[in-house]
Amino acid sequence: MRKSILSVSLLSLSLLSCTTILNHLPYVYTIDINQGNIIDQAMIDQLRPNMTKRQVIYVMGTPMLADFFHENRWDYIYQIKKGGEDVEKKAISIFFERDKIKGIQGDLKPSALPVVKPSTEQMVDVPPRDLEKTLWEIMTGWVDYDGVDVDKPKPSALSQ
Question: pLDDT tens track of the chain, all 160 residues?
Fold first, then answer.
């Protein structure tokens, strides 16, 4: 009986140590695990007082937790576990009064400076096109077809 208890305890200790050892092996790739709504400072900086719920959804997305008993509070929760590192957690609570933002509470605070988003649009120079001819006219020009049949006589204006 005593040997079986000893062997079970040794087996359980060895299994527990395997997870610790396997999590910290060098040259072993572990994936990043994202959970919840991705929250960053640029998103929080776009929030302003008196924004509507629809505007908040446009900036932040739908909340991770929408409590039935507290409809005027939205909670955004984000966790990331990068390979081999500790879990990083961020949480934001947005409070509403009459469907407008009343307050923000959490790990990130909005800045007092106005938000200036750099433009990602690029200018492209388009070469001018010859719009005098249609595509059909260009294609028939390659085979030297002018659109007139030699065998058929042209209809005159009087015969119509």
Answer: 777 777 777 766 666 655 566 666 677 777 888 888 888 888 898 888 899 999 999 999 998 877 788 889 999 999 988 877 888 899 999 999 999 999 999 988 887 777 677 778 888 888 887 677 788 888 887 887 555 655 555 566 555 5
Helix (H, G, I), strand (E, B) or coil at 101: strand
Domain coverage including residue 43: 31-111
Note whether residue 153 is domain-resident.
no
Residue 127 lies in a domain: no
- Output the domain CATH number for residue 103: 3.30.1450
Tally: H helices and E strands in the chain: 4, 5
Count of domains forming the chain: 1
pTM of the model: 0.56
**Residue with token string 């695990």:** 33
How far is residue 97's CA from residue 36's CA, in Å, rounded to a whole number?
Answer: 25
Please, what is the Cα angle at 31 between 26 and 36, to 5 degrees?
140
CA 20, 21, 26, 29 dihedral sign is negative
